[in-house]
Design goal:
With about 200 residues, this protein is mostly helical. The chain has one domain (about 5-20, about 30-180). It has helices at about 5-25, 30-75, 80-120, 125-135, 140-180. Helix 1 runs parallel beside helix 3.
Length: about 200
């Protein structure tokens, strides 16, 4: 599992830099009323932070999956590829499911000391009230519920639409890399079973 550590460290490092920058900003103390508004807004933002936590956990797992898939296709006997892919998927899914709540809990804990000061410094009480009113409105909630469907619809249409243009470029890139490295370009075997699927999400 050491392969994904650099990616995860870079993500966490970026967050640490942002937190340090916020902590270093000197702002006038916020009023009690404003602090309460900020806390309410942070609470309303928790679902988004929780989604971000899963994204952070999935990103290194997806990177590791790409490397594992390449190894399976080139180094594992054909009759064992499907079983190997399923086992790797199970291991990556387990990692994501275990890492997500850890990252989520730490993110929620850090929100008051990272996001909170930004809101206190950059937004007025009236602006905070307007944002809260929007987030609590039925329209905002409905829009939030539609986000997954809208994203899935876009991805479904985008992938086949872009594939005819992107696939030849990707093939050309693979050939160029193989030529640069002086190695023969192996034809990827046909995917069978779950060998070409990304780690399962829950």
């Amino acid at each position: 599992m050491t392969f994904f550590r650099p990616a995860l460290k870079s993500i966490l490092a970026a967050g640490l830099i942002a937190a340090t920058a916020v902590a270093g900003a000197q702002a006038a103390p916020a009023s009690t009323a404003k602090k309460e508004l900020v806390q309410k807004l942070l609470t309303l933002q928790q679902p988004g932070v929780e989604a971000l936590a899963r994204n952070i956990a999935e990103r290194p797992a997806q990177q590791l999956w790409q490397g594992a898939l390449q190894a399976i296709q080139t180094k594992v006997p054909a009759e064992k590829r499907e079983a190997a892919a399923k086992q790797v998927q199970a291991d990556l899914t387990k990692f994501v499911n275990e890492a997500t709540p850890i990252i989520r809990d730490r993110a929620v804990k850090l929100m008051p000391t990272t996001i909170g000061p930004v809101l206190e410094q950059e937004m007025t009480e009236d602006e905070l009230k307007q944002v809260i009113a929007w987030l609590e409105s039925p329209v905002s909630k409905k829009f939030g519920e539609l986000q997954p469907d809208m994203t899935n619809a876009l991805i479904k249409a985008l992938l086949p639409d872009a594939a005819p243009v992107i696939d030849p470029k990707l093939k050309q890139l693979e050939q160029q890399v193989a030529k640069t490295l002086g190695i023969p370009l192996q034809n990827a075997p046909a995917n069978n079973g779950n060998a070409g699927k990304a780690p399962a999400k829950k």
